[in-house]
Specification:
The chain has helices spanning 2-15, 55-68, 83-96, 107-118, 133-141, 154-163, 186-195, 248-257, 259-262, 269-283, 286-302, 325-337, 367-381, and strands spanning 32-35, 38-42, 100-104, 124-128, 145-149, 169-174, 199-203, 227-232, 242-246, 309-310, 317-323, 340-341, 344-345, 355-360. With 382 residues, the chain is α/β, with parallel strands linked by helices. Helix 4 (107-118) packs parallel to helix 5, helix 4 (107-118) crosses helix 8 (248-257) and helix 11 (286-302) runs parallel beside helix 13.
Length: 382
Amino acid sequence: MPFAELQHDLDERAAQGLLRRRHVLESAQGANVTVGGQPYLSFCSNDYLGLASHPQLVAALRQGAQQWGVGAGASHLVSGHFAPHHQIEAQLADFAGKPAALLFSSGYLANLGAVQALAGRGDTIFADKLNHASLNDAMLLARANVRRYRHNDTAHLAQLLAQAQSGRKLVITDAVFSMDGDLAPLPQLLALCEQHDAWLLADDAHGFGVLGEQGRGSLFHFKSPRLIYMATLGKAAGVSGAFVAAEQAVIDTLVNHARSYVYTTASPPALSVALLQSLQLIRQGDGLRAHLRGLIEKLRAGLAGLPWKLMPSDTAVQPLIVGGNKETVMLSAGLRARGIWAPAIRPPTVPQGTARLRISLSAAHSAEDVAQLAGMLHDLAR
């Protein structure tokens, strides 16, 4: 029976400490959540500015649903493109410093659509080896030639670009790497794209709202038309969806050829009403970003001296490398038994031997929250 084969594979994953299970939240997203009737101090969420339950966003979503209903009813190209969709696209383009933007229902769909629309047979995609799964899947589905360069190794990328003789050249990278928390060398990547007549598509899912002037992202001060900017709206923005911002010709190409846009029912227009409010809060969020930077510094100081390696990261993503899968799961469970939720991340999400706690900080956390986490980890180390 095929079910027996599936169960055998699942049992093997469980034996290796790799079986994934879901946890059901019984409260709104925030620094403090309820799971299984138990309260937890959460370091799991990508809600970096603490906006996911912000009362102004809740009110905007309610007003949006009252005015526009709860479903779009069709794809954007049929009858599902509403005024709030159009408004948020215009504001996101302006915020990102690009001529135009296109709204997608998720970051995964945005990467799938953009990469497939811009590269195909006879073209070459150059990809960082630690890119997000959505970029990896997109480059495979594009049916282009794929060349992967060593993580953040611009010399290796330069060699590969020089070898490409024909077709379009598209470099794809995370701007902030979601599991390591480090930054791509964006100025050097863009310079290589200028030199070799290539495009640079940067996924700033973990930088938008947090990094750059007014939270405008990792690439706001880069004005090159070769830059194609993708960011998600369910992390620091606190709502849902994603967008691609680029030159008008690029956006028009996506409207016509990005399959994950053309053939998907549009997101509810009420979400775009909430996003319009979120964008205002991000613009005004310098205090939130300053508080978050202080928490990052406090956490890194507090975790000094642990037997586990804290990776170098100046972002809200703070990975603590444990190594073994079972050991990482045990450490996560030890924290959970003490009322702290920090997720164990294991292969294939990260390379073998680098299982880790992925500690996510939010402006919703307090300095006392961070001190509590650090103290618990030191207790468990002893």
